[in-house]
Design a protein that fits this description.
The complex is a heterodimer. By secondary structure, chain A is an all-alpha fold. Chain A contains 3 helices and no strands. The longest helix of chain A has about 30 residues. Chain B has a domain of about 220 residues. Chain B is globular, with a radius of gyration of 22 Å. The chains are: A mainly alpha, B mainly alpha.
C-alpha cells in the first residue's frame, strides 16, 4: 500500500493523460475530442503539481515560526500550472468557437463526415 | 561607427519581444482614434524590430547578450539569451514580418481586419520570444502564443476549408503542446531548474533512460509544429487554407521556429549526438515524402505547402550531419527557404486573386496578364530549386559539400537521394513556370498589376534572393557564429551561467 500512497498522484496524472489521448484518438465527435484535449491537459497539470508536492507540506510562506524549508511544497510548478491552465482555457475557447463555426458549415460534428481537405 | 556602437550598447534585446507585444494590445485602442492607421502598426513594429536586431548583430558576434529579467542571476530567473542564433532568427522574423505586413496593406480587405493585425503581431512576437528565450518553460509559453495565434489566423477567412484545417491543426498542435509540457515537467522533476543552460550543464549527471523519455516527449511535441514527417498531417491543409500572406509567414517563419526549438533541445539541452543518425533518416524521409506529394498536386498552395515539408526535411538532414558545414548549411537553407517560399506564397496570392482559383491550370497565360508577379514567382521557384544565381544555390551547395566532407559512403548515398528530391522539386516547379509562360490562356489577355505595396514587398524579396545568392559572403560571418553556438554547447552554458 505504501507504493500506492507514495505514487498516487503520478498514477492519477498518467491515468488522465492516457484517457485523454485515448479519447482524442478514438472518438469521432468533435466535442468529445475537445473534452479529451481538456482531460489530457488536466493530467499534465496534475503531473506538474505532483512533481513539486510534499506530503503534509505547507505553502512556501514563512508565516508561522518553526517551519523549515523542507516542509514547504515547491512553488515553481504551481506557477507553471497557473500559466498552463490559462493557456489551456485559451485553446479550449478557440476549439469550441471553431466547433460552432464548423457546425454552421457542415451541420454535423462527426469528424468522419468532415473530409473536404484531403491529401 | 563610434556612434553606432554606442547606440547598439544601449539597445536591449528585450525590446524585440516587448514592442510587438505592446503594439498588438494597443491595436484596439488605436482603432478608436482611427481605423485607417491600424494596418500600418505591424509595419512600424517590424521595421523597429529589424533595426534593433541589425544594431545588435555586431555586439552579439563578440559576446552573447544575456538579459536577466527581474535582476536575479540566471538559474533563478527567466532570462533572454541573444546569441548569434537568436539574433539571426529575430532579424529573419522581423524582415519577413515587415515585408509580409507591407504586402498585407492591400491584400487583406475582407474579414475583421483589426483582429488580423493583432494576431499577426502576436504570432511573430511568439516566434521572436521562442528564439530569444533561455528558459524552457518560457519557451513553452511563447510557443503557445505562436500556435494559438496561428490556429486563429488559419481560420481567418471563416470558410469551410479554413475552419476545418484550423480545427485539425488545433487538435494536433494541442496534443503536441501537452507532450512538450509533460517533457518539461519530467526535466524539472529531475534537475529542479528550468534554465536551459543549467539543465544542459547537469544533463550528463542523470541516467540515460531518465533523460531519454523527456527528450522523446519534447521532440515529439515540438516536431508537430516543425512538421517533421510523421507529425505533419496538419500542414498542407493549414497552409493552403490560410490567406496567402499568412501562408507565407506560417511556411517561412512558424515551422522554422519549431525547427529551431527542436535543434536547440537536441543539440544544446540533451547533447544527443547518439540519436542524430535517426534524424538523418527522418530528414531524408520527410524530404522525399514532401516532394513526391507536392509533385502530384494540382492546387498551387497545396503544392507549395508540400514543398515546404520537403525543404524542412532537407534542413533537418543538414543539421543532423552535425559538422560545421552541415549546421552552417542548415541555417543558410533556413534563410533561403524563408525568402524563397515567402516570395512564392505572396506571388501566388495575387495570381490566385486574379485567376479566381487555386488550380494550377487556370494560371495559363499569366505571364502576359501579370508580367511582374509571374517573374517574381519564377525567381522564387528557381531559388527554391537551387539554380544559380539565386540564394537557393549556395545554400544547397553547402549542404552537399557538408555531406561529402564526412567521407562516409552512407552520406554520399543519402545526398544522392536528396538530389533526386531536388530533381522532383525542379520538375513540379518548372511545370508551373511552363503553364504560366508557355501556355496561351483562353481568356482575354487583360493586363492587370498587383497593387503597388504588394509589388514593393515582393521586389525586396527578389533583391535579397539575388544579392545573397551572388554574394553569400555577406552573411557567412553570422552563419558561422550561429553554427559554432549550436555545436559548442559548453560555450553557451558558460556565457549564460557565467
Amino acid at each position: 500500500m505504501s507504493f500506492l500512497h507514495n505514487y498516487i498522484y503520478y498514477i492519477g496524472a498518467f491515468g488522465l493523460i492516457f484517457i485523454g489521448l485515448f479519447i482524442i484518438l478514438v472518438k469521432h465527435n468533435l466535442i468529445k475530442v475537445i473534452i479529451g484535449i481538456s482531460i489530457l491537459e488536466t493530467g499534465v497539470n496534475l503531473f506538474l503539481i505532483a512533481v513539486g508536492y510534499i506530503s503534509k507540506g505547507t505553502a512556501p510562506i514563512f508565516s508561522k515560526p518553526g517551519i523549515n524549508a523542507n516542509q514547504m511544497v515547491d512553488p515553481v510548478p504551481q506557477a507553471l500550472v497557473l500559466t498552463a491552465i490559462v493557456i489551456g482555457v485559451a485553446v479550449l475557447a478557440m476549439a469550441l468557437s471553431l466547433a460552432i463555426r464548423l457546425y454552421k458549415h457542415y451541420g454535423t460534428l462527426d469528424l468522419r463526415k468532415i473530409k473536404e481537405q484531403r491529401w | 561607427m563610434g556612434e553606432l556602437s554606442l547606440l547598439s550598447n544601449g539597445v536591449n534585446p528585450v525590446l524585440l519581444v516587448v514592442v510587438p507585444l505592446a503594439l498588438a494590445f494597443a491595436v484596439p485602442l488605436i482603432g478608436f482614434v482611427s481605423k485607417k492607421i491600424i494596418k500600418y502598426i505591424p509595419v512600424v513594429a517590424f521595421l523597429f524590430n529589424l533595426i534593433v536586431a541589425l544594431l545588435l548583430i555586431p555586439s552579439v558576434l563578440k559576446q552573447p547578450i544575456v538579459v536577466k529579467i527581474g535582476g536575479f542571476a540566471p538559474p533563478f530567473c527567466i532570462n533572454l539569451v541573444a546569441g548569434p542564433i537568436g539574433i539571426l532568427f529575430s532579424a529573419l522574423i522581423a524582415l519577413a514580418g515587415l515585408l509580409v505586413s507591407i504586402y498585407a496593406l492591400n491584400y487583406i480587405r475582407e474579414g475583421p481586419q483589426e483582429k488580423y493585425h493583432i494576431l499577426y503581431l502576436l504570432l511573430l512576437t511568439g516566434a521572436t520570444g521562442v528564439v530569444l528565450t533561455g528558459d524552457i518553460f518560457n519557451l513553452f509559453v511563447f510557443f503557445e502564443i505562436l500556435c494559438i495565434s496561428s490556429y486563429a489566423l488559419v481560420a481567418y477567412l471563416g470558410n469551410k476549408a479554413g475552419i476545418e484545417s484550423s480545427i485539425k491543426y488545433l487538435i494536433q498542435g494541442s496534443v503536441g503542446s501537452s507532450l512538450l509540457l509533460l517533457g518539461i515537467g519530467l526535466l524539472y522533476g529531475q534537475f529542479g531548474t528550468l534554465n536551459m543552460a543549467d539543465i544542459a550543464n547537469q544533463i550528463h549527471s542523470a541516467s540515460s533512460p531518465s533523460i531519454f523519455v523527456p527528450m522523446v516527449l519534447m521532440i515529439t511535441g515540438l516536431g508537430v509544429e516543425a512538421a517533421i514527417f510523421p507529425l505533419n498531417a496538419w500542414l498542407p491543409d493549414a497552409h493552403s487554407s490560410a490567406p496567402s500572406s499568412i501562408s507565407a509567414i506560417l511556411s517561412g517563419i512558424a515551422i522554422e521556429v519549431g525547427l529551431y526549438a527542436v535543434i536547440r533541445v537536441l543539440f544544446t539541452i540533451f547533447d544527443a549526438s547518439n540519436f542524430l543518425m535517426f534524424f538523418v533518416f527522418l530528414g531524408v524521409l520527410t524530404l522525399l515524402i514532401g516532394e513526391m506529394c507536392a509533385f502530384s498536386q494540382k492546387n498551387i498552395k497545396r503544392m507549395l505547402a508540400y514543398s515546404s515539408i520537403g525543404q524542412i526535411g532537407l534542413i533537418v538532414f543538414a543539421f543532423s550531419i552535425a559538422n560545421t558545414y552541415g549546421v552552417t548549411g542548415g541555417f543558410f537553407q533556413l534563410i533561403s527557404h524563408t525568402l524563397g517560399k515567402g516570395l512564392l506564397f505572396l506571388a501566388a496570392g495575387y495570381m490566385i486573386y486574379r485567376s479566381g482559383s487555386m488550380d494550377i491550370s487556370t494560371f495559363e497565360g499569366m505571364g502576359k496578364r501579370m508580367p511582374l508577379t509571374s517573374l517574381f514567382f519564377t525567381v522564387g521557384a528557381f531559388s527554391i530549386v537551387g539554380l544559380p544565381p539565386f540564394i537557393g544555390f549556395p545554400s544547397k551547395f553547402m549542404i552537399v559539400r557538408a555531406a561529402l566532407s564526412t567521407g562516409e559512403l552512407l552520406f554520399t548515398i543519402l545526398i544522392g537521394i536528396v538530389l533526386l528530391g531536388t530533381v522532383i522539386e525542379g520538375a513540379y516547379f518548372f511545370r508551373v513556370v511552363q503553364v504560366i509562360y508557355f501556355k496561351k490562356g483562353n481568356g482575354n489577355p487583360e493586363r492587370k498589376k498587383a497593387p503597388i505595396s504588394g509589388l514593393i514587398s515582393m521586389f525586396i524579396f527578389v533583391i535579397l534572393i539575388l544579392v545573397i545568392g551572388v554574394y553569400p559572403n555577406l552573411i557567412t560571418k553570422i552563419l558561422n557564429s550561429a553554427a559554432s553556438e549550436l555545436l559548442n554547447r559548453i560555450d553557451y552554458i558558460r556565457s549564460v551561467l557565467g
